[in-house]
Write a structure and sequence with these properties.
Blueprint: H1 3-6, H2 17-34, H3 38-43, H4 52-57, E1 66-67, E2 70-71, H5 75-88, H6 90-110, H7 113-125, E3 130-133, E4 149-153, E5 156-167, E6 174-181, E7 184-191, E8 197-198, E9 213-224, H8 235-270, E10 272-273, E11 276-277, H9 282-310, H10 316-340, H11 352-362, H12 369-381
């Protein structure tokens, strides 16, 4: 890995020994355990569940949460973990991000003490897998319009509705489900095996193929009152979870971008064209220099957001700016690398096309590119253009 190319401004030169060790450990894990089978797994739409408990042993699940068996790492360390996971594949980072920043964080922030003690330690080890049910077939960018409804019935709730495009859904043991109630939007813990609950896989994806995605269906599901996330009180709580995950994306996608740039540099130095290395041509060097420059800028954005988040000073609009900016950078780097590699760029032997396909989804999920720009626009003007 060429750190000069991918961290041209030495943004991360002051990492402490612990942070460096975390980065190196996750990098080795991804390269040695995950990457040998990624081409086959992507082609066969297979997520290697067998590595989940290994991730748990390394402390990668819920890593920036404190207590309950979680590692309690700082926000820079969490970001570096996401970056190394996505250097491997966006699907791998998506699994860890949903498990940690959506499912575990929702319980951590809004659950009862009993719920936290029961679920979080098992989720930290990877023995229990979670998913996060917010998006519905008719309500993506407008989650407040959700139709899923939970009606209080004695000492339980009756849940009806559906969610879609839910990462981890087909393999999850527990779903964090957001639903309308007579009291407003609340969060519920829906356990696998609950009568009337199903989570079928979404097939034929052309992106995030090494990741499991599904729908959630609820047909008169009876949810015990103790499975209500008691501290939830409106859509703002779900959006707080999304901000946690979006922060991880800010770092994560840079891993994919860096992998593409390294691939482009290596390829152009080895590829002979008109009797000299492809890297010797001005157009190629311009493309490489622009990619390195954009990644350097993205690193600065990520590090600053991590510092703000660590000090509890980060604003949702700042995370939106980072998510929108860095995903665009990563997608552009993947497309440029695919272009540089020519016909070879579409081969599974190389990584850029896989990264490009994955990043098309990351560009859209957890807030589309346009929605994040409008969130920043609202912060600048005080006017909500999407309402």
């Amino acid at each position: 890995m060429d750190t000069l190319a991918t961290d041209f401004l030495n943004t991360f030169q002051d990492l402490d020994e612990s942070q460096l060790l975390i980065k190196e450990t996750v990098h080795k894990f991804v390269q040695n355990v995950f990457m040998p089978n990624i081409t086959e797994n992507f082609e066969n739409a297979h997520f290697p569940k067998e590595i989940i408990k290994e991730m748990g042993k390394l402390g990668l699940l819920g890593s920036n949460l404190h207590g309950y068996g979680c590692a309690g790492l700082d926000e820079i360390s969490y970001g570096l973990i996401m970056k190394e996971l996505e250097r491997g594949d966006s699907g791998l980072r998506s699994f860890a991000s949903v498990q940690s920043s959506l499912a575990m964080y929702a319980i951590y922030a809004f659950g009862s003490e009993e719920q936290k003690k029961y679920f979080l330690p098992k989720m930290a080890t990877g023995d229990t897998i979670g998913c996060f049910g917010l998006t519905e077939p008719d309500f993506g960018s407008d989650p407040a319009g959700m139709k899923t409804f939970a009606k209080k019935s004695g000492d339980s709730w009756v849940l009806n509705g559906s969610k879609t495009w839910i990462t981890n859904a087909p393999i999850a043991d527990i779903a964090i489900v957001w639903a309308q109630t007579d009291e407003g939007i609340r969060g519920f813990l829906v356990e696998k095996g609950t009568k009337g609950f199903s989570a079928p896989e979404i097939k034929n994806k052309l992106s995030l193929r090494a990741s499991k995605t599904g729908s959630l269906f609820f047909d008169n599901c009876q949810i015990p009152n103790e499975n209500l996330l008691e501290k939830t009180e409106g859509l703002k709580n779900a959006l707080m979870c999304l901000n946690q995950a979006r922060f991880g994306i800010v770092f994560g996608v840079l891993g994919a971008a860096e992998d593409c740039l390294n691939e482009a540099i290596h390829y152009t130095k080895e590829r002979i064209m008109f009797k000299k290395p492809l890297a010797s041509f001005q157009l190629i060097q311009r493309k490489l220099a622009l990619m390195s420059t954009e990644i350097a800028k993205g690193n600065l954005v990520a590090l600053q957001l991590a510092k703000l988040k660590q000090n509890k000073k980060v604003k949702p609009a700042q995370i939106s700016m980072g998510k929108q900016n860095n995903v665009q950078i990563a997608l552009d780097c993947a497309r440029t690398t695919r272009d540089i590699l020519g016909a070879n760029g579409i081969s599974g032997e190389y990584h850029c096309m896989r990264h490009m396909c994955n990043l098309e989804s990351v560009y859209t999920y957890e807030g589309t590119n346009d929605i994040h720009l409008l969130i920043v626009g609202q912060h600048l003007t005080g006017i909500a253009a999407f309402e």
